[in-house]
Specification:
The complex is a heterodimer of chains A (138) and B (498). By secondary structure, chain A is mostly helical. Chain A contains four helices and no strands. Chain A has helices at residues 2-20, 25-45, 67-98, 107-137. In chain B, helix 11 (237-262) runs antiparallel to helix 14 (318-349) and helix 12 packs parallel to helix 18 (403-428). Classes of the chains: A mainly alpha (138), B mainly alpha (498).
């Protein structure tokens, strides 16, 4: 059972990672959702083999399943849920503004790159002019 | 004292709830936020004093004994971080009121800001690894909202990157927690300190690396820093200042805490961290040099300085960690004040492009002075606090005979002087763009008192760090002694048991 769960978790991680590397926001979101499920499953199986519900007086303590990872998983699910909801709102806002869900490049990065390129071009031109002047003299 | 420990978490959260109730009355919200942050400041100062006298303070949430319940622990490091962070949060909130941007436009600002404060305090106080995850999330969710509050295109784009990257870091954190729990059966940090050495060497190193990656993303370590200079500058100044001053430091704090407490010396990643620290310094400062946007330049520069803190930790010596602690305190105050000054300049001129700004030493001498002091400090010019911090770190590096990193840090320090002088010469000297000049000529030149006032307070605080560098460094040394001897922490938390 635990092996099956571990493999399920691995499969969720693999597909999630693949989707996360896409350029479209909607896929990234689904990818994050899948990875979130994978981690929650991992938390769940971190407590070892399953057992009966851990309520004192209902059975032998040896047969109880570990309640702590379940509490972790519950907390983690709530947090993932909240953040995913926020992300969806953000993605919707982004779609409202651009009508497209491709992740954009960093504008400032492009600006800095262009500026440096311009400087190179200017320097190159200046060097060429200097060379031409040199040739004229000689 | 132990009854005080949960207050820095509870008070801001209650305040946040009150702010939601008082959504329609901005003045009431402001009073609540200021009161909650002031109470945090007072409580954390009391905690710092008491920790000096009585040693590590521990309280168990809900009265459950140590490994079962959630322990809240205040040791020297946590107390120092609490004091500095609450001073920062308070002054920046005053600045935000004066700025009249997001704070006055959105009713949610006050409550979200307090949730952020609660998350930051909780990250420092908690003695439970899973609870640290929850505290991180509290802080991060608040920061997502603050970053994207305006809903402007740039903010949404940068916010998306920030949220996705933070989510991935959180996922790694949960994975690490699951693995650690299945290996040791506990997430209480004190008990982990006892159990982790019982694991095999490979597993220990694996956990150590996993946690460095998780916290490294939050701290902005090389090569995990790329999201930081992209997302921070898009928020309004006050928020960028909080993020720059606090959020990355929480990551650094978590690295220091996990490396010193959880792992025995053979799983501590000293040499790896040294390499990472060197690269972080170099890449950060070179990135800063290439920028044309004042706030982006400063954001890249944060990355560079995270390298110094990690350098101090990576030595794993008393003087190294003491230097790192001192440097964190200095950097939180000084970096935030630089961002606030950048905000003042932008407020006055309407732009933060280096290529358009100019001549502000004549048009606004106050801003020039306010910039010069923290800039000299962060560049490490004696006698400012940055010099003391860098000197302590370099000295520690020389003692440990790590020549390469010492050389790198000195070179980066020179480059930092260059970055700061570049800002100085293009913002405060030279000629401004005609549009900026026109704006300077037509507007009255009166700055909001709250903005200037809070900036002055932070700048003065930076100077106070310089004046009281001696006692502060002694405190940092005591902190380092405590960090290097995890048995004190374990004793304090698990004391009654076993």
């Amino acid at each position: 059972m635990s092996v099956l769960l571990a493999f399920t978790s691995a499969a969720l991680f693999a597909t999630g990672t693949f989707l996360l590397l896409q350029r479209r926001l909607s896929r990234i979101l689904i990818g994050i959702g899948l990875i979130g499920h994978g981690t929650n499953l991992l938390l769940e199986i971190s407590g070892g083999a399953g057992g009966i519900a851990p309520i004192i007086g209902t059975g032998d303590q040896q047969d109880f399943s570990d309640p702590l990872p379940q509490a972790f998983a519950l907390t983690s699910i709530v947090i993932t849920f909240g953040v995913t909801a926020f992300l969806l709102a953000l993605a919707f806002r982004s779609w409202q503004m651009t009508h497209d869900d491709v992740v954009e490049d960093d504008v400032e990065d492009r600006y800095v790159a262009r500026r440096t390129q311009d400087e190179f071009v200017r320097e190159g031109e200046a060097a060429e002019r200097a060379q031409a002047a040199e040739e004229d003299r000689s | 004292m132990n009854a005080l420990i949960p207050l820095p978490i509870i008070v801001p959260l209650l305040g946040a709830a009150l702010c939601v109730i008082a959504a329609r009355a901005r003045w009431a919200q402001r009073i609540v936020v200021l009161a909650a942050l002031t109470s945090n400041l007072v409580v954390s100062i009391v905690l710092l004093v008491r920790v000096q006298d009585d040693g590590i303070g521990v309280t168990q949430a809900g009265g459950w004994p140590a490994p079962l319940g959630i322990s809240l622990v205040v040791d020297d490091l946590a107390a120092i971080m609490l004091v500095v962070s609450s001073i920062m949060l308070l002054t920046v909130f005053v600045y935000a009121i004066g700025e009249g941007q997001e704070e006055s436009r959105y009713a949610a600002f006050g409550s979200v800001y307090l949730v952020l404060a609660a998350g930051v305090s909780a990250s420092f106080i908690t003695g439970d690894l899973f609870n640290l995850f929850v505290a991180f999330e509290m802080m991060l969710v608040a920061s997502y909202v603050l970053l994207t509050l305006g809903g402007r295109p740039g903010q949404v784009r940068a916010g998306m990157t920030y949220v996705v990257i933070s989510l991935i870091a959180s996922t790694f954190f949960v994975v690490a927690l699951a693995l650690i729990y299945s290996a040791t059966g506990t997430v209480n940090m004190a008990e982990l300190a006892v159990r982790v050495p019982e694991l095999s060497h490979g597993v220990r190193v694996g956990f150590s690396l996993l946690l460095i990656v998780v916290f490294g993303i939050k701290a902005g370590l090389f090569p995990l820093f790329f999201w930081l200079p992209d997302s921070y500058p898009t928020a309004p100044t006050a928020i960028t200042a909080v993020f720059a001053g606090l959020l990355t430091k929480v990551g650094v704090y978590a690295i220091i805490r996990s490396q010193t407490l959880l792992f025995p010396s053979d799983a501590q990643q000293g040499s790896l961290l040294l390499v990472v620290a060197g690269l972080t310094m170099v890449v950060g400062v070179l990135g800063a040099l290439a920028q044309d946007d004042l706030r982006r330049m400063l954001s890249f520069h944060i990355v560079s300085h995270i390298g110094y803190m990690i350098f101090g930790l990576a030595l794993f010596t008393l003087s190294g960690i003491a230097g790192a602690v001192f440097y964190i305190v200095h950097h939180i105050v000084v970096k935030s004040s630089l961002f606030l000054v950048a905000g003042l300049a932008e407020f006055r001129t309407g732009t933060d492009r280096l290529s358009r700004l100019g001549g502000m030493v004549r048009s606004t001498p106050t801003i020039a002075v306010l910039f010069a002091l923290p800039a000299l400090s962060i560049a490490g010019i004696p006698p400012f606090s940055g010099f003391v911090g860098k000197f302590a770190l370099v000295d520690a590096g020389i003692q440990s005979e790590k020549w390469v990193i010492v050389a790198v840090s000195l070179t980066v320090s020179l480059l930092t002087v260059y970055v700061m002088s570049r800002i100085w010469s293009s913002v405060f000297w030279g000629e401004a763009d005609p549009a900026v000049q026109a704006r300077l000529a037509t507007s009255s030149g009166r700055m909001p008192v709250l903005m200037t006032g809070s900036t002055v307070v932070l700048v003065l605080l930076g100077l106070a760090i310089m004046v009281f560098a001696g006692p502060l460094y002694e405190l940092a040394e005591r902190t380092a002694t405590q960090l290097l001897d995890p048995s004190q922490y374990v004793e304090a938390v698990l004391g009654g048991r076993s």
